[in-house]
From TrEMBL:
Residues 3-406 form the RsdA/BaiN/AoA(So)-like Rossmann fold-like domain. Coiled coil: none annotated. It comes from Mitsuokella jalaludinii. This is Tricarballylate dehydrogenase. Keywords: FAD, Flavoprotein.
Length: 414
């Protein structure tokens, strides 16, 4: 019977352990935290967005960091397989807006509990509070691991699934990268992905907590458009966050790292052409002809946002509506569709939902997840240089990689 060691009890590690055990291996799962699935507990705002119901090509398109690497593993264990797996474990799922898949209960705890129950059912040995220090080799191939307490575990294969370097309180402290480096693997420089952005403009503090829907955001680097997204966002005391901001943050981080001047241009009225927006403003002004500008825009903008927009358009909020010139009105319309923020930096990597960068995919077999450098060493999950937009894509990637690593660690005879 093959002896398989899995390092890390996150989504990829637990799935890998389950698959290895189902294929007849004796599996030990080593986790440094007090309980498994800590990071899963906070995904989807505590509801656990386990996958996305789009077709596989669409999912891969949304995995903007090396999505093509997952072609084999995801087709072997796709989103339908993930949903069926949880249904079989007694966790029915539902599909919500944007094809996001959640447990019907809306409880991440149910997802984690189902995986842990399956591990116990299969006889997987789970060792908690057991951080690993080194992966051990013998004659060039994996032989086991040494824990930080000095304990040695022998194994025919080791699956490294310790997560990235974001949310360190959940156990993702980046120690897997050092283990991989020691064995000769290249680690692509780490950057935050799915992380809020900080802005230079102070006025965001005055509107913190304000959420906007149906906004078009354009990311500019050196004046050139690099990405555009439509959807929801929110202002914070330090800048901006929300689904479209998080999804653009990877590109923003890359551009900032390259020393480029990065801006975020917001179109607050993307459904209107400039001509229709001007007509809308004139209609509102006609209805509020005796009011000041700040009171004449209440039908057009959230109250908190009126004065910042007027300030950016260089307009006096106290100016009577009937005194606004055509040139000033056009300036207001221009600001509504080109409200620009200067991005100074991302929030720290520790606050990112996902880590971009990690063990180079060029050194991993995409079908089996085995190292091309060290026989018997497998990778799965966020430790690999794969990351995606928000929407269940990152967990799907973790489950697909975990499935491949778990199965092939048993099937391979190298």
């Amino acid at each position: 019977m093959k002896q398989i060691l899995v390092i890390g009890a996150g989504p990829a590690g637990m799935m890998a352990a389950i698959r290895a055990a189902e294929n007849g291996a004796a599996v030990t799962l080593l986790e440094k935290m007090k309980r498994p699935g800590r990071k899963m507990m906070i995904t989807g705002k505590g509801r656990c967005n386990i996958t996305n119901a789009a077709d596989v090509p669409e999912i891969i398109r949304n995995i903007h960091g090396n999505g093509a690497f997952l072609n084999s593993s995801m087709r072997a264990f796709d989103n339908q397989d993930v949903m069926e797996f949880f249904r079989q474990q007694g966790v029915p799922v539902k599909v919500e807006r944007g094809n996001r898949v959640f447990p019907v209960s809306d409880k991440a705890q149910d997802v984690v509990d189902a995986m842990v129950h399956r591990l116990h059912e299969l006889g997987v040995r789970i060792e908690l509070e057991m951080p690993v220090a080194d992966i051990l080799l013998q004659e060039g191939r994996v032989a086991g691991v040494r824990t930080k307490s000095g304990a040695h575990y022998k194994a025919d294969a080791v699956i490294l699934a310790v997560g990235g370097a974001s949310y360190p309180g959940t156990g993702s402290t980046g120690d897997g990268y050092e283990m991989a480096r020691k064995l000769g693997h290249t680690v692509v420089p780490l950057r935050p992905s799915l992380v809020p952005l900080e802005t230079e403009e102070e006025w965001v503090k005055d509107v913190q907590g304000l959420s906007l829907r149906n906004v078009r955001a354009t990311l500019l680097a050196g004046g050139e458009k690099v990405q555009e997204m439509f959807g929801e966002m929110m202002f914070t005391h330090f800048g901006v966050t929300g689904p479209i901001i998080l999804s653009m943050s990877r590109r923003a981080a890359k551009c900032l790292a390259e020393g480029k001047f990065v801006e975020l241009e917001l179109n607050l009225k993307p459904a209107l052409t400039p001509e229709k927006l001007d007509a809308r403003i004139q209609r509102d002004f006609g209805q509020h002809i005796r009011k000041s500008l700040k009171n004449g825009l209440l039908d057009l903008l959230p109250h908190k946002l009126i004065e910042p927009v007027l300030d950016c358009a260089y307009l006096d909020p106290e100016k009577p509506v009937h005194q606004v010139t055509a040139e000033e009105r056009h300036r207001l319309a221009e600001t509504l569709q080109h409200l620009t923020l200067t991005i100074t930096k991302t929030r720290p990597l520790a606050e990112a939902i996902v880590t971009a960068g990690g063990v180079s995919v060029r050194e991993i077999n995409p079908k089996t997840m085995e190292s091309k450098l060290v026989p018997g060493l497998y990778f799965a999950g966020e430790v690999v240089d794969v990351d995606a937009y928000t929407g269940g894509y990152n967990l799907q990637a973790a489950f697909s990689m975990g499935n491949a690593a778990g199965c092939w660690s048993v099937w391979n005879d190298d």
